[in-house]
Amino acid sequence: MLRRKPTRLELKLDDIEEFESVRKELESRRKQRDEAEAAAGGEEAAAIGALGTEHKSREQLINDRIGYKPQPKASGRTAHFGTFEF
């Protein structure tokens, strides 16, 4: 495999100015979104408290998301031999 010298990248003043403008724009968007979420979060908390919805554990949320429905394990002889009775 042929080796070549590393490519030299030069940072120009225009590039720095563009980066700063894009960064400021993203920060302003993030602040607006955070403020909107904070305002909506207070309203949602009041609505959830009023409705009395149940809170699921992290494990239950994951199981619901992937469609896993755990079946309870049966104990005793019937668990090993099905419905046969002795």
From TrEMBL:
| A Pfam entry, by short name | ANAPC_CDC26
Q: Which GO terms describe its biological process?
A: anaphase-promoting complex-dependent catabolic process; cell division; protein K11-linked ubiquitination; regulation of mitotic cell cycle
User: Which cellular compartments is it found in?
Assistant: Nucleus
Could you tell me the superkingdom of the organism this chain comes from?
Answer: Eukaryota
**Annotated Gene Ontology cellular component terms:** anaphase-promoting complex
Q: Which UniProt keywords apply?
A: Cell cycle, Cell division, Coiled coil, Mitosis, Nucleus, Ubl conjugation pathway
Listed pathway(s): Protein modification; protein ubiquitination
Q: Which InterPro entries match?
A: APC_suCDC26 (IPR018860)
Query: Biased-composition ranges for Low complexity?
Result: 38-52
Q: Which PANTHER family match?
A: ANAPHASE-PROMOTING COMPLEX SUBUNIT CDC26
Task: Name the family.
Answer: Belongs to the CDC26 family.
| Name the UniProt record assigns to this protein | Anaphase-promoting complex subunit CDC26
